[in-house]
Amino acid sequence: MKKVLVPVLLSTLLAACSSTGTFDQPAGGAAVDERSQGAGAGAGVATVTAPSAAGSGIAALTDPKNILSKRSVMFDFDSYVINDEFRPLVEAHAKFLVQNPTMKMLIQGNADERGSREYNLALGQKRADAVRKALTLLGAKESQIESVSLGEEKPRCTEATEACFAQNRRGDMLYSGEF
């Protein structure tokens, strides 16, 4: 948790310390509160409040009402093409990464148990790479994202049914501090 909060707090602190605007036009929408000073005190001193990061902050990653709390892109059998139903999810995570350039993501590609171990490792890597490529095409930096394959080694479901196999064909997105 500390690994996640430190970069956010540091960036908020740095944003609060920057001075790109004037007292009449605050930078970045920050609220500026001018206070009158007594004699001998430095005139023109203002209190600046940093804008809230609640909309794009770390809390959004765990809020079940926020799309960012969803971390799995599901794939069809023997496929590594991102389905249209998961595009809004990928777009939301890409936007989050763009707004939080210090955040890192690990994408774990998974496959169901059908197929050889080697085939499933390769398919899992293609799935992870497909999500990584989509995120970078939407503006995330390549240096923020790593993709690995777990193949069939980390199943979400262990029953030998089609519904269970479908749960195991996925790319899981994990943020710093979660892996």
UniProtKB/TrEMBL annotation:
Q: Which residue range or ranges hold the OmpA-like domain?
A: 62-179
Subunit structure comment from the entry:
The Tol-Pal system is composed of five core proteins: the inner membrane proteins TolA, TolQ and TolR, the periplasmic protein TolB and the outer membrane protein Pal. They form a network linking the inner and outer membranes and the peptidoglycan layer.
Record's protein name: Peptidoglycan-associated lipoprotein
How does this protein lie in the membrane? Lipid-anchor
In terms of Pfam families, this protein maps to: OmpA
Task: Supply the source organism for this entry.
Answer: Aromatoleum toluolicum
Q: Which domain of life is it from?
A: Bacteria
NCBIfam families in the record, alphabetically? Pal_lipo
Q: What is its main location?
A: membrane
Q: What does this protein do?
A: Part of the Tol-Pal system, which plays a role in outer membrane invagination during cell division and is important for maintaining outer membrane integrity.
Name the family the entry cites. Belongs to the Pal lipoprotein family.
Compartments where located: Cell outer membrane
Q: Which InterPro entries does the UniProt entry name for this protein?
A: Bact_OuterMem_StrucFunc (IPR050330), OMP_bac (IPR006664), OmpA-like (IPR006665), OmpA-like_sf (IPR036737), Pal (IPR039001), Pal_lipo_C (IPR014169)
Q: Which UniProt keywords apply?
A: Cell cycle, Cell division, Cell outer membrane, Lipoprotein, Membrane, Palmitate, Signal
